[in-house]
Amino acid sequence: MTTLRFSYQTKVEFSGDVTNHAFLLRSFPIEEKGQKVLDLMHTNFPIVTGGQYLKDGFGNTVYTGRIDRGHDSFTYKVIGTVIRDDSKKSFEKPLPSYRYPSELTKASPEIINFHKNLNLPSNHYEAARIISKAVYDYMIYETGTTGIFTTAADSFKGRKGVCQDYAHLMLALCRLSKIPARYVCGITIGEGETHAWVEIWNEGYWYGFDPTRNCFVDEGYIKFCIGRDYNDCPIQRGIFNGDVLQRQSVYMEVTKLKEALLA
Amino acid sequence: MDYVSLTKTNRLYWLGRYCERVLSTTQYMMYWYDSMIDGAAIDYKDYCEKMGIPADYESPEAFIQEYIFDKENAFSLRHAAEEMLANGMVLRETISSKTLAYIQMAVNALELGKNDSAPGVELQWVVDDVMAFRGSCDDFIEEEFVRNIIKTGISIERLSLYLRLGYNLENVAKEMKKMLNRLHKSGLQTNAMSLGRIYLYGNENQLNISDEDLLKAVENLVVL
Amino acid sequence: MERLLNHKSQINNQMARYGVKFGIYKDGEFLERLFPFDPIPRKITAPDYEKLEKGLIQRVTALNAFLNDIYNNKKILVDKIIPEEFIYRSPGYLSACENFSPEKKIHSHISGIDLVLGKDGKWYILEDNLRIPSGASYPLIARSLCRKCSPDTFRNNEVVDNRNYGQLLKETFDNVNKGGINVIYTPGRFNAAYFEHSFLAEKSGAVLAEFDDLFVENNTLYYKSSKGPVRVGAIYRRISDEFLDPLTFRSDSLIGIPGIMMAYRAGNVAILNAPGNGVADDKGIYYFVPKMIRYYLDEEPILDNAPTYLPFYKEDLNYTLENFDKLVIKDVAEAGGYGVVFARELTKARKEEFIEKIKKEPRRFIAQEVIDFEDLPIVEGSETVDRKADLRAFVLAGRKTKLWPSGLTRFSRNPDSFVVNSSQGGGFKDTWIMSH
Description:
The structure holds three protein chains of three kinds. Helices cover 73% and strands 2% of the residues of chain B. Chain B has helices at residues 6-37, 44-51, 60-69, 77-89, 92-95, 97-114, 120-140, 144-165, 172-186, 192-203, 211-219, and strands at 189-190, 222-223. Chain B has one domain (6-223). Chain C is globular, with a radius of gyration of 22 Å. The longest helix of chain C is centred in the first third of the chain and has 25 residues, at 46-70. Chain C has two domains: 2-306 and 390-433, no CATH class; 307-370, Dna Ligase, domain 1. Chain C has helices spanning 2-6, 8-17, 46-70, 75-78, 85-88, 137-149, 151-157, 165-176, 194-204, 241-244, 260-265, 283-286, 289-297, 314-322, 348-360, and strands spanning 21-26, 29-34, 37-44, 110-117, 123-129, 181-185, 207-209, 214-217, 220-225, 228-237, 270-272, 304-305, 308-309, 327-331, 340-342, 365-369, 375-380, 383-397, 401-403, 408-411, 427-433. In chain C, strands 3, 4, 5, 12, 17, 18, 19, 20 and 21 form a nine-stranded mixed sheet that branches. In chain C, strands 6, 7, 8, 9, 10 and 11 form a six-stranded mixed sheet that branches. The chains are: A alpha+beta, B mainly alpha, C alpha+beta. At the A-C interface, β1, β3, β4 and β14 of A face α5 and β8 of C.
């Protein structure tokens, strides 16, 4: 069991005023047996009207709201405490859709070939371990070469990408083996940006793999949202009026809380 | 109770304007059609200049034909009629299919007139149809403010044409009064400066303000 | 009847008066043209109609049960009646609709079911349209105009009145309305069914809303009236799912309503037809509709599908390859009649290429027997000629599910064509349900 204190903040800056800004956020820790939320505080600037929390099709918490009057930046911040406990996973049946390729995780002939050469065992967990390692070995981490709409097939071709691309490629490979697998977005111990990884389903339970870092997901990871791929669960999306450029800065920090502090 | 959005308000207003543009222009052109029988030629360059549109026509005859009937010409009467229909179309549930049919018929008449060597008859149909449309609007539309948005558009367009072309100037004051009365009942938002000028024109004496300034005030009066 | 024929030009004049238009996209350009009307109606006898009514209501009821099951419990997949593949590889399946039941569990409020009458006298279902089926306005306005031009025809024939469509649509709206006004949302004038959008708004008393007339706040949909925001309880949207909400689907959609999906999932607005219906009117799923009827309703299907084969199943693939020349092959991924191929019309090279394609992606195709369906007479000049015709029947799921006593009969312009689709230049007829 690990208690984590986290703080996540995103600031979107526009080069001029925007109006009628409608947005959606998925930047809240998922509530499940292995991830309990102790406290949570969410603030926005400027003031949001009509903000509402609701679950989406995957069970992610979604916050929607709008800022109608002119503004040239939008900041939201989520702070909280989460108890992570991987010994308390819940038994689940996966959505069948996790077994099928989604828009960003369709396998290209090259990926199919790559998959064939892995000679994967039939056990989901074992296979996923091999896939995660193979993706890590094959890809080169490089920012700026791919974007949020880059498909697994495209990043496979270029061999370069960021955590989202690693995750998509791993998903494509898992689904070729009919392993139910889902995209996860969240934050991890330390500070910096958000992260993306993969969960695979094996005999009733979900297990996390991080192909970008070539490791298992441990209690230092906090899940914000899940889906078949990035498209299903972007952390944030906004639509507004205004012909502007935008710049986004994300800052997150996750620290382990000492036992003593808890007591 | 009819629900009217800002988009719809915009369309109602422009429906009125285009409707009047079609009506006045058709009548004006009918007059010239008739005069040309006796050899008079329309000074189309002067007309175009006053209207602020390009005057690249080969002859007065070509002007008459193209300015009235050419659908591709963005300044033509036919084009204005298409705009009138386009605005009307989106307002079907507000003005009813029955009412909309009259402007559809006006457009159909222009299409028929295009290939007729004596299009005077079709032009008369256009006038008949637009007048019928206005009657049907009055009869069908329950909400007074909706009727008055269209009518404000009509008055504004009429004033605009009077002032641009410099005809019927003796009727400007009368039309202005009518327009203000309709505007008042329409709930349309106005530009305070323009409204001030127009009041000044109505109350004081009209010599204080040039036709050009008055035109500007009329054109900028309604804020959409 | 004869009188009606004599009045053809008058009727067409009336059509022009009301601007009965159908827009099509050709070579990237939007063209608006009159939808040619043929005055000879299709007549359906009362007993025939009764059977259609039962069969179509049964079908739509099963399709609604299926949609609700797929997005919630997925029993039909667990029981292996339909292979998962057909759901999760379908572009019509939307994960954003998972785990949600719309008001009264109605997903397809207005269903357009396409049928043909075989020369054997039996009706065959060709296609279900559960997204935004268009076309009801055409026979609706045609009837009013014909009555005007030729009243005697109607005095003598005892045709069931079809002019209640607006009322039926209103009941369908009201049945699921979550509190607020009814709105028909149109992407604007440059849309193939524009005439219909505005006409149906008028007939059903709904407000026609355009882009920028609507917004979401507090997960509630509002109409921007000049007198302030007015809550919308039900919206009949005439744009496809992918453009519906840029916050959930395509973020580059310029015609969508940001946030409407969450307003929908919050239960604050009903969307007609529900998003995600594409998974049920997929050409691949069509094969399984009779099975759905048995599964959900425990009844035998009253109306038949055209005999269909799924190359996905080994034996069906074999049958398809052996009988290739007499079959019509449909690409599951495409809509609008362009993805329909008559095998016998292919050149040898194209045929081989096509067969390879089927072997490689069997799930992408269905094969059907070509149904020899009836010709209907149409007027051409001073004589009548025969053309292939189909029927789009409209089923409305209000408090009770009802079949509209009429329908859109479409005919092909080309004498040899079996494809009757308004986007390919055919015309339409009124459909008369006879009262006895």
